[in-house]
């Protein structure tokens, strides 16, 4: 409606495809677990950033998204909040060993994965939410052991994840959310085939893709991964 339109214009949010919920102006207006709201507050986040205002409510209702917003605009939290919320709700009441991974985040480098997992831990503190980091440089045995003990979220680089999947049997059938962070990099030559190999092992997850810039070729590849993808861009067009 008109109100949503003018709010988006003010926040420089543009949306294409699907019927996308209106941006939210506060974290409390999304129905999030109380503990997650407390963790957001403890992180010092008073208000959502524009990308969070639009992407969080859309992701929470299961939409697949291709999001572009400049570096430093808070993209990480915009996919972690829906993931923590979803996992905490599903895993509530389950024994640790019953917990199959429900979400997976792929990122191009070990360092980025470490940062994202660190933020995930902060947001998931005190909730039934555990994470596993799957990157090169650490022993595979420890990584698989952690997953087998029950985790909600796997954060990893495609190469190491494939190595792990080849060597061990990991149940991926419950993974309902797949994030491709730095998607412009993840769907370019080099990474694309690895990402698709992992994607094919999943059962049609909701796909959330984020980057600072999204070339047309990446948008085309992204559209092939989920039907009804919503494209969200933050900031002035053609910047
Ligand atoms: P991007 O992935 O878009 O480059 P990040 O997700 O790494 O950006 O976030 C950049 C910085 O902004 C981080 O230090 C993060 O803690 C901070 N941040 C994220 N969301 C908020 C918020 N709602 N309020 C204040 N700071 C935030
Ligand atoms: Mg980022």
From TrEMBL:
Residue ranges occupied by any DEAD-box RNA helicase Q domain in the UniProt entry: 25-53
Motif range (Q motif): 25-53
UniProt family annotation: Belongs to the DEAD box helicase family. DDX59 subfamily.
Keyword Cytoplasm: no
Enzyme class: hydrolase
Keywords per UniProt: ATP-binding, Helicase, Hydrolase, Metal-binding, Nucleotide-binding, RNA-binding, Zinc, Zinc-finger
EC number, as in UniProt: 3.6.4.13
Part of the whole protein covered: 117 to 355 of 412
Domain Helicase ATP-binding: from-to ranges: 56-232
Catalytic activity: ATP + H2O = ADP + phosphate + H(+)
The protein's name: DEAD-box ATP-dependent RNA helicase 41
